[in-house]
UniProtKB/TrEMBL annotation:
<dbReference type="InterPro" id="IPR051546">
    <property type="entry name" value="Aspartate_Ammonia-Lyase"/>
</dbReference>
<dbReference type="InterPro" id="IPR024083">
    <property type="entry name" value="Fumarase/histidase_N"/>
</dbReference>
<dbReference type="GO" id="GO:0006531">
    <property type="term" value="P:aspartate metabolic process"/>
</dbReference>
<protein>
    <submittedName>
        <fullName>Aspartate ammonia-lyase AspA</fullName>
        <ecNumber>4.3.1.1</ecNumber>
    </submittedName>
</protein>
<keyword id="KW-0456">Lyase</keyword>
<dbReference type="InterPro" id="IPR000362">
    <property type="entry name" value="Fumarate_lyase_fam"/>
</dbReference>
<feature type="domain" description="Fumarate lyase N-terminal">
    <location>
        <begin position="16"/>
        <end position="285"/>
    </location>
</feature>
<dbReference type="GO" id="GO:0005829">
    <property type="term" value="C:cytosol"/>
</dbReference>
<dbReference type="Pfam" id="PF00206">
    <property type="entry name" value="Lyase_1"/>
</dbReference>
<dbReference type="InterPro" id="IPR020557">
    <property type="entry name" value="Fumarate_lyase_CS"/>
</dbReference>
<dbReference type="GO" id="GO:0008797">
    <property type="term" value="F:aspartate ammonia-lyase activity"/>
</dbReference>
<dbReference type="InterPro" id="IPR022761">
    <property type="entry name" value="Fumarate_lyase_N"/>
</dbReference>
<dbReference type="InterPro" id="IPR008948">
    <property type="entry name" value="L-Aspartase-like"/>
</dbReference>
């Protein structure tokens, strides 16, 4: 951000002599490269809307530029305010820097969501042949394939992907040039225009100067919108991990969590679902960070919201926590997740769910009567088919066709 403004000033006004401009440019590059990171000790928890951080940057750049001028034997000096902060206010520069950081983080989170979505969608096809019990309200309902279960999970993150993509358009505006209250005083228009172009060139981001600078300086609701987008990803992570905790539990055990640590210091035959609990805990924590952003975004007064440093802190936390949860599930859990087909099949036979697949052929009351006659679990598919054939007028071929995974888990093409 500083590099864009200073280069614009030099381009439009030729304010600094060649030796000064050379030292100033080098100082900025050293800050960008991280070579002077130890000179920035300030936390984001601070009053003043980021003034302390802005002055920290101004002073470090000026001090380093002056060191370089001394080394060259040049008597000219750079001032932290009149030079490095020229035509700027914390109220337009700090939010611009925040936008750059959070836009980059949003791009990264979007890719993390895409990777999880792709991993889930791949398993939709891989497990399309595995018929299992579909459950509603924690009760056995109708047959479903394991592939359809994975596909439903993928759908959540497909929506997250597009929500985040659309948010990029809303957060790409910056208040650069608006100075203290959005009026632009005392920045020259040509410098502001040149700085905007330089900012896009340097960052490679589609940033645009807001067409309503007083609004952009005063209000931070776009960060609340971003927080809601991140929060939605976290909420879907809670749903996904909650489902997987049930499927990998001792009660169901249809999926197996990888054993990555001793299950207990006293229980040897136990596998703790640590990846799921880790990702779920991160998702809960990220939601709290996003809620803090929403609260802080409401707290502006008149022409400024002074809590932007706090907003940035909580958004960075949310990005990190949600991103880590996504990577944990994509890279660590899913590749090692065990599918226990024998257990899935046993539960399917024991549940009488398959009887419900005969509803188009027998009607509600006919299926209910079969269940009354045989409340015990079936030991095999053949036993179930024989029972239905013996107690109805259906032929064996009709029953087996109705119980085919493709038929039992899709639209009915023809009713008997």
């Amino acid at each position: 951000m500083k590099q864009a403004v200073l280069s614009a000033i030099q381009e439009v006004e030729q304010r600094w002599s060649p030796p000064v401009w050379k030292s100033l440019s080098r100082a900025v590059e050293e800050v960008k490269s991280g070579g002077l990171d130890d000179q920035f000790p300030l936390p984001l928890f601070q009053g003043g809307a980021g003034t302390s951080i802005n002055m920290n940057v101004n002073e470090v750049i000026a001090a380093r530029a002056n060191e370089l001028l001394e080394e060259e034997g040049c008597p000219e000096r750079v001032d932290a305010l009149d030079d490095v902060n020229r035509y700027q206010s914390t109220n337009d520069t700090f939010p611009t820097a925040v936008t750059i950081v959070l836009y980059w983080r949003l791009l990264h989170l979007e890719q993390q969501v895409i990777r999880l979505q792709a991993a889930l969608a791949e398993r939709e096809g891989r497990y399309a042949h595995i018929l299992m019990v579909g459950r509603t309200e924690l009760q056995d309902a109708l047959p479903i394939t394991l592939g359809q279960v994975f596909g439903s999970w993928a759908g959540m993150f497909e929506r997250d992907r597009w929500r985040l993509h659309k948010i990029k358009e809303r957060i790409r505006t910056v208040p650069l040039g608006g100075t203290a209250v959005g009026t632009g005083f005392p920045a020259p228009a040509m410098v502001v225009f040149a700085a905007e172009e330089a900012l896009r060139r340097i960052t490679g981001l589609p940033l645009a100067r807001s067409q309503n600078l007083p609004d952009e300086v005063a209000h931070q609701d776009k960060w609340s919108e971003l927080a809601h987008g991140i929060r939605q990803v976290a909420e879907n992570l809670v749903k996904l991990t909650g489902d997987l905790l049930l499927y990998t539990s001792s009660f169901l055990g249809e999926l197996g969590h990888p054993e990555v640590q001793a299950g207990s210091t006293i229980m040897a035959a136990k596998t703790n679902p640590v990846f799921l609990e880790y990702a779920r805990g991160l998702a809960f924590s990220a939601q709290h960070a996003c809620d803090a952003v929403s609260t802080l975004s409401q707290q502006g007064q008149l022409q400024l919201n002074p809590y932007l440093p706090f907003i940035l802190h909580h958004l960075l936390q949310a990005f990190t926590m949600v991103g880590t949860a996504l990577e944990t599930l994509t890279e660590r859990l899913l590749p090692a997740l065990e599918v226990r087909e024998d257990r899935i099949h046993a539960h399917l036979l024991a549940s009488h769910t398959l009887l419900n697949a005969l509803l188009p052929l027998l009607g509600y009351h006919g299926v209910k009567e079969l269940y009354r006659l045989h409340p015990e679990p079936f030991s095999s598919m053949d036993e179930l088919v024989r029972f239905v054939v013996d107690h109805t007028d259906l032929e064996e071929v009709e029953v087996r066709a109705a119980l085919d995974p493709g038929r039992a888990t899709s639209f009915v093409r023809r009713v008997r």
